[in-house]
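Anyone up for a design puzzle?
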């Protein structure tokens, strides 16, 4: 490997570093030569999963590498992040750091010392959250310009949580982003609260929120006019927007592939679920546009785990959720099975 030109080594390392950072870190520990050869690809794909300490540590390491390369030690190259997976610390599965006592719990305290201790824990949580928000803005200020794929998890087990991380300012937008996988509500806003645009985005996965006025599909179509592949997950009812999409209409003018992931039953024997299943089957039968129905994800699988698995597959060259055709899945069970 020492005889290979740096340009070729860079391409090899880039192809290897598609696992969220593990290979990049490992290569940097092999030898000084390999560390230098792999430096530019070390952050090709990065996974930051659910803790504020991990985000702060990554920013420290990334800024250090940028300083090294800016000093001319890497032939003028700068490390860039092309693929990012981020599970928000207050919305991911790993929340042990921030399980502080809420203000509602403080009101229930009767002992003075316990009240003081609870108030102190809340203040510490608010301080940690403010620092995390700051780091989150700093992260996207550094990487948003070069990102090609982004998976952002801001919910748990399919239940959307929007506690404290909205709205993160991203003044540079995402000019190169091609694929966006969102689990929860989008946190990004532009300068002075303006919408963030995605001019190159072609593949978008969203949680379907028909009752959420802030997540209307026509707004996404205005911000991302090049969408060709759209996946809506956690579909719990057939709405007017879904009906428009199924008939070949809707706001996405270049859409040619529609994927729907229905929400699965919470428990066997539910009375509401068979009704949804029946309505959804009728909706599919009446659809004009071809619709690919993905197997629903059970609530036993954490959202973060499922999202990361799909992201790894896509970054590594797999199809992710974008299969060309899937017959009606056996996991899309019949009404009779549920009743």
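Challenge accepted. My sequence:
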């Amino acid at each position: 490997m020492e005889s290979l030109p740096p340009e070729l080594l860079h391409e090899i390392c880039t192809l290897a570093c598609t696992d969220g950072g593990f290979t990049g870190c490992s290569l940097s520990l092999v030898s000084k030569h390999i560390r230098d050869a792999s430096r530019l690809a070390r952050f090709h794909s990065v996974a930051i999963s659910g803790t504020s300490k991990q985000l702060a540590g990554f920013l420290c390491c990334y800024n250090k590498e940028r300083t090294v390369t800016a000093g001319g030690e890497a032939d003028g190259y700068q490390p860039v992040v092309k693929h990012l997976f981020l599970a928000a610390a207050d919305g991911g599965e790993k929340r042990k750091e921030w399980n502080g006592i809420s203000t509602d719990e403080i009101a229930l305290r009767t002992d003075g010392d316990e009240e003081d201790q609870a108030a102190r824990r809340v203040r510490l949580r608010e301080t940690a959250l403010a620092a995390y928000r700051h780091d989150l803005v700093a992260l996207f200020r550094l990487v948003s310009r070069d990102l090609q794929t982004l998976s952002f998890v801001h919910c748990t087990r399919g239940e959307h949580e929007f506690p404290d991380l909205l709205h993160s300012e991203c003044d540079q937008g995402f000019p190169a982003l091609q694929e966006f996988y969102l689990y929860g509500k989008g946190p990004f806003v532009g300068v002075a609260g303006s919408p963030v645009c995605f001019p190159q985005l072609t593949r978008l996965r969203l949680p379907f929120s028909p009752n959420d006025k802030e997540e209307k599909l026509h707004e996404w179509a205005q911000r991302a006019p090049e969408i060709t592949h759209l996946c809506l997950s956690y579909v719990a009812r057939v709405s007017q927007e879904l009906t428009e999409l199924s008939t070949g209409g809707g706001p996405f003018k270049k859409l040619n592939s529609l994927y729907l992931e229905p929400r699965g039953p919470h428990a066997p024997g539910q009375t509401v679920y068979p009704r949804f299943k029946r309505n959804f089957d009728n909706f599919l039968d009446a659809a004009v546009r071809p619709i690919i129905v993905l197997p629903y994800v059970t609530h036993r699988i954490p959202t973060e785990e499922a999202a990361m698995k799909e992201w790894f597959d896509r970054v590594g060259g797999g199809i992710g959720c974008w299969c060309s055709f899937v017959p009606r899945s056996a996991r899309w069970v019949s009404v009779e099975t549920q009743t």
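A detail worth pointing out: The CA atoms of residues 148 and 176 lie 6 Å apart.
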